[in-house]
Design goal:
It contains 17 helices and 11 strands. By secondary structure, the protein is of the alpha/beta class. Helix 1 runs parallel beside helix 17, helix 2 packs parallel to helix 3 and helix 7 packs parallel to helix 10. It has one domain: TIM Barrel. It is globular. One of its GO terms (molecular function) is oxidoreductase activity, acting on paired donors, with incorporation or reduction of molecular oxygen. It holds the Pfam family Bac_luciferase. It comes from Streptomyces fagopyri.
Length: about 350
């Protein structure tokens, strides 16, 4: 079930490529996060694709502040590096806490839908008129009568995977996407949601079926991201998990957090630190470990195995057919990949 691994773009570019080379011996797809203020995801994925021969993907990018022509071109260029049997995955969502702290996100689901349609038209070799994508055109100041095409593109091996938790984006995913990502660090798709018995009520996965009724896509792959932080040093693993969890609690609606058992007092200080620009490191220090534990499985390999097995069993029961080991992976990605491939994953097969 586990076919991929997600690397955090806060690490150095060369070190991520080195880790990816090792990970590619075990995983089919190397996913890289796109956090805007971290390393450039396109450059990192290009280096990984060229060096490893693995499939690559964004997990996940977003339309705000981005040129859609460049995004389409980047994905098609990455596809040129893919060997037979591998593909590029454009994981896309509405942007996280760092994005919303910097810019307004008007009609986010509509913007994601336009980006998907825009990219697909270019990948089909069509000439795209900017004004046919009014939300994008208005937000980026594009000329309505302007046209663009990618004459060198010929149906690249790119699948579009939408990440989200809300009913509107999941219904849109069901209609337009080739797959959907649901990550365990989001409250409504978390271990907390499963353990509380609230997953079916809060996951909104029923909206995928509503979207599929209008879809012309041949299939929809359900991908579950299992967010993990593993290290021989438990304290460092836990600290990395808190950093990842801080990114999540800073952007999620209070209702989503409270539905699965979190109290506002658990995360208020962390949320305020992100929104006032104090940075993720400072925000993570303010997050209680018991909150992070429900969103990111962390600790030594022995600490993680039982919870991972439990979470994957829940995911299978919920209809997911593919999974990846999600960020942060661990405080030292090289150590984490080694521990995951030699000590953790063999216990889960």
């Amino acid at each position: 079930m586990i076919k991929g691994i997600q690397l955090h773009a806060w690490a150095g570019g060369p070190s991520m490529v080195e880790v990816a080379e090792v990970a590619a011996r075990t995983f089919e797809t190397i996913w890289v996060t796109d956090q805007m203020q971290s390393r450039g995801v396109g450059a990192v994925l290009g280096a990984i694709a060229a060096r490893t021969g693995a499939g690559v993907g964004t997990a996940v990018t977003f339309p705000f502040g981005r040129n859609p022509l460049e995004q389409a071109s980047t994905m098609a260029t990455l596809a040129e590096f893919m060997p037979a049997g591998r593909q590029v995955s454009m994981g896309i969502g509405t942007g996280g806490g760092l994005v919303s702290a910097l810019m307004e996100r008007q009609q986010p689901v509509g913007r994601v839908a336009e980006l998907i349609r825009f990219c697909r038209a270019l990948w089909r070799g069509e000439s795209v008129r900017m004004g046919d994508y009014p939300l994008t055109c208005a937000d980026l100041g594009l000329r309505a009568e302007g046209r663009a095409s990618l004459d060198w593109v010929d149906d690249p091996a790119v699948r579009v995977i939408v990440a989200g938790t809300g009913p509107k984006i999941l219904e849109m995913a069901g209609e337009l996407a080739d797959g959907v990502i649901c990550a365990s660090n989001f409250p409504s798709h978390s271990l907390a949601a499963f353990r509380s018995g609230q997953f079916d009520a809060v996951s909104n996965l029923d909206r995928l079926d509503a979207g599929r009724e209008r879809s012309d896509r041949p299939e929809l792959t359900r991908i579950y991201g299992v967010n993990v932080s593993v290290s021989a040093d438990r304290d460092r693993a836990n600290a990395a998990a808190r950093r990842q969890a801080a990114l999540i609690v800073s952007q999620q609606p209070h209702e989503s957090l409270q539905q699965v058992g979190f109290e506002q007092s658990d995360y208020a200080a962390t949320r305020e630190a992100v929104h006032t620009g104090r940075g993720i490191a400072a925000a993570a220090e303010l997050l209680p470990q018991h909150v992070a534990d429900q969103l990111v499985i962390s600790g030594t390999p022995g600490d993680c195995i039982a919870s991972l097995a439990e979470l994957l069993e829940y995911a299978r029961g919920a209809g997911f057919t593919e999974a990846y080991v999600g960020a942060p992976v661990g405080p030292d990605p090289a150590e984490a990949v080694d521990l995951l491939t030699t000590e953790v994953l063999p216990e889960l097969i």
